[in-house]
Write a structure and sequence with these properties.
The complex is a heterodimer. Chain A is an alpha/beta fold. Chain A folds into 2 domains: about 15-95 and about 170-180 and about 200-250, P-loop containing nucleotide triphosphate hydrolases (Rossmann fold, 3-Layer(aba) Sandwich); about 100-170. In chain A, about 30% of the residues lie in helices and about 25% in strands. Chain A contains 8 helices and 10 strands. In chain A, strands 6-7-8-3-9-10 form a 6-stranded mixed beta sheet, with helices on both faces. In chain A, strands 2-1-4-5 form a 4-stranded antiparallel beta sheet. By secondary structure, chain B is an all-alpha fold. Helix content of chain B is about 80%, strand content about 0%. Chain B is built from 10 helices and no strands. Chain B is globular, with a radius of gyration of 18 Å. Classes of the chains: A alpha/beta, B mainly alpha.
């Protein structure tokens, strides 16, 4: 892997007195009047990692999409990187790296073309080709760079999604199951790409309770109904208690 | 501008690679001309009938492309990608509108000569018809990109697109068919009053360009 690989976030020019990276109060989100998130509040300092745990359907992905400016909250206040969402979403866009359930790569482009397209959206312009090549090397995809995205395996797509998420060296990484479909070797490569770095804040949704809590400074555990079962320092939540939340015993 | 160029280049590259829109439009047009030829039982058309057949065919063929315009954005996360980037959403609308105009122009390069070969006794009106088709294409591009993005977020998108689009295109149809009527007249093209129809088309284009510019940000937000 290239030793010159840049993984540290670029500092925004207007960021003179940064508050917490994420400040959420009383967040509720409904779909067709059915609450998916109920009264969620949390604070996450800059440079910290938050593990988001909870059973399927507890609203983890919805929370990430709201923080990424892709969904609007139904009620409550959401602050991300000192911008109030959704009103100031434009201030956050371009400063967040997002991995969701979809790789967000056009299937009829080659992998190199797809990533270069994202690099151009993020205004990397003349640096785009070099940055894409650097990231593809970092996740050992340089030999599949000219394959169509539609022909890539799920694991390759996940590695490509990780490249896309860090292309523009974002300050905030929102990662929904970032190690899905990865073999152990690929997992190591992607971990390196998404690792903690000075000034980089991470929110990681994972069902690997032990690994998520080990890597996190803070934890948020959601119940089946989207309410908060735990929000606080990660060491304050034992893996056993976290599992009890999954089974509905907490 | 960089985002506009990136999105437009991506769309054109994908169309050249997959040939999903323009060939389908051309095939649709040829089939329609064959149907008109036998349905009307005429091997020669002129004036209003010629203009109507040509413009109606172009308009319905355009729906093929309009329905496909945002398929990749909807199914492959393109909307999310744009919203995660520091990009004015208007760049997406503008790139899609220009892509649609390019598809229509490429389609018309094939469809209009076939129409002329099928139905016209004289090709004299085809040259000046380019101005009418160009203005009609700009209007179709502006409205088509807007309606297609609205329909993309609807469950009944295949129905919503044409249902919203066709009434909005009535002014384009009237002005371009009236202009074409004069250019495809039996005795040769007539240019008197043609400027009025060109001006109406240009006004329509400007109006919907302004509407797209003003509202597209709201269209792609949650």
């Amino acid at each position: 892997m290239s030793t010159s690989l840049s993984t540290q976030p670029a500092r925004p020019e207007h960021d003179t007195a940064p508050g917490p990276a994420i400040a959420v109060d009383g967040l509720t989100r409904e779909f067709d009047e059915r609450p998916v998130l109920r009264d969620v509040s949390l604070r996450l300092g800059r440079g910290a990692t938050l593990a988001v745990l909870g059973p399927n359907g507890s609203g983890k992905t919805t929370l990430l999409r709201i923080l990424a400016t892709l969904l609007r909250p139904s009620s409550g206040s959401v602050g991300v990187l000192d911008a109030e969402l959704p009103r100031e979403a434009w201030r956050v866009r371009g400063r967040v790296g997002f991995i969701g359930h979809d790789p967000l790569l056009y299937r009829d482009l080659t992998l190199r073309e797809a990533l270069t397209f994202h690099a151009r959206l993020h205004r990397l312009d003349e640096r785009a080709s070099a940055r894409v090549a650097e990231l593809l090397r970092a996740v050992s995809l340089e030999r599949t760079a000219d394959e169509l995205v539609r022909n890539l395996s799920a694991g390759m797509l996940q590695r490509a999604a990780a490249c896309r998420a860090v292309l523009h060296e974002p300050e905030l990484l929102l990662l929904d199951e970032p190690f899905d479909h990865l073999d152990p070797a690929a997992r190591d490569l992607v971990s390196e790409l998404l690792r903690t770095a000075p000034g980089r804040t991470r929110v990681v949704v994972s069902h690997d309770v032990e690994a998520a809590l080990d890597a996190a400074d803070r934890a948020l555990a959601l119940r089946h109904d989207g309410s908060v079962a735990y929000e606080g320092p990660a060491p304050g939540l034992s893996p056993g208690d976290a599992r009890a939340i999954y089974t509905g015993r907490k | 501008m960089s985002a506009f160029r990136a999105i437009l280049a991506k769309d054109l590259r994908v169309e050249l690679r997959t040939l999903e829109s323009v060939p389908a439009m051309a095939l649709f047009a040829v089939t329609t001309f064959v149907l008109f030829r036998f349905g009307l039982d005429r091997d020669s058309l002129a004036g209003g009938l010629a203009g109507g057949v040509l413009l109606a065919t172009i308009l319905f063929a355009a729906i093929v492309a309009v329905n496909r315009l945002f398929v990749a954005e909807r199914e492959q996360g393109g909307f999310d990608a744009i919203r995660l980037a520091p990009v004015d959403a208007v760049a997406l609308w503008a790139a899609k509108a220009v892509a649609l105009v390019i598809y229509l122009a490429a389609f018309e390069l094939v469809a209009v000569p076939i129409f002329a070969a099928f139905f016209l006794d004289s090709w004299a009106g085809i040259g000046p018809l380019v101005a009418i088709l160009a203005l009609a294409d700009l209007g179709l591009g502006a409205v088509g990109a807007l309606v297609s993005s609205l329909a993309a977020s609807s469950r009944a998108r295949d129905l919503v697109g044409p249902l919203v689009l066709l009434p909005l295109l009535v002014p384009v149809m009237i002005a371009s068919a009236k202009g074409a009527e004069q250019l495809l007249a039996a005795g040769g093209p007539s240019y008197s009053g043609l400027g009025k129809w060109l001006a109406i088309l240009a006004l329509y284009d400007l109006t919907f360009a302004a509407i797209g510019f003003a509202v597209f940000d709201f269209v792609i937000e949650d």
